[in-house]
Amino acid sequence: MDRTKTCCFTGHRPEKLPWRRNESDPRCLALKERLDRALDAAYDQGMRHFLCGMALGADFYFCDAVLALRARRPGVTLEAVIPCEEQASRWQEADRERYFSLVEQCDYETMVQRHYDRGCMLRRNRHMVDRSAMLIAVYDGMLGGTMYTLTYAMKHQLDVVILDPVS
Question: What does pTM read for this prediction?
Answer without folding.
Answer: 0.97
